[in-house]
Amino acid sequence: EMCIRDSAYFVRASAGADTNDGRAPSTAFRTIARALQAAQAGDVIYVGAGTYAESLASDPSSLQRFRSTR
């Protein structure tokens, strides 16, 4: 049985820090990888505009959808 948490995490390449909690734009993570580590099923990750020089690997079956918002 899947637990839906509906928590949000924020990532900002220019103003984030991976030591932050990622729970608000003002305390965003710096990397998408850190947000993926923190997120659980049902969570949402908001990725701010910017350049992210990362290599990300994930189990494709665990990813439900990516949507870009502006």
Strand content: 5-15%
The chain-level structural class is: little secondary structure
Shape verdict: globular
- Along the chain, the helix and strand elements come as EHE
What oligomeric assembly is this protein in? single chain
State the strand order across the main sheet.
1-2
What are the low-pLDDT stretches, counting only 5+ consecutive residues below 50?
A: none
Count every helix, treating DSSP H or I runs of 4 or more residues as helices.
1
Distance between the termini: 33 Å
Instruction: Please outline the major beta sheet.
Output: 2 strands, parallel
Total number of beta strands:
2
- Overall mean confidence score, pLDDT: 81
CA radius of gyration: 12 Å
Indicate the percent of residues in helices.
Answer: 10-25%
Commentary on this structure:
It is a single chain. The chain has 70 residues and is largely without helices or strands. It has 1 helix and 2 strands, in the order E-H-E. The protein has a two-stranded parallel ribbon with strand order 1-2. It is globular, with a radius of gyration of 12 Å.
In short:
The chain is mostly loops and about 70 residues long. The chain has one helix and two strands, in the order βαβ. It is about 10% helix and about 10% strand.
Task: Offer a few descriptive terms.
globular; 70 residues
